[in-house]
Amino acid sequence: MTGNYSTREYREKLYDDLHVRLRDTAILMCAIFIASIGLNMNSTAVIIGAMLI
């Protein structure tokens, strides 16, 4: 079932379901750092490894 939501209702539903934890943010930052190193080294394996994190 789909409904027609106003922008305000849609934003409220989105923010109610959004939970950002420090742990998730730290893991994301580590993956970004590793991917950056892989790009600087031109290493496909390191970039793919960062994507797996």
Automatic annotation (TrEMBL):
Residue spans crossing the bilayer:
26-52
- Keywords, alphabetical: Membrane, Transmembrane, Transmembrane helix
In the UniProt record, does the keyword Membrane occur?
yes
- The protein in question is named Membrane protein
Give the source species.
Answer: human gut metagenome
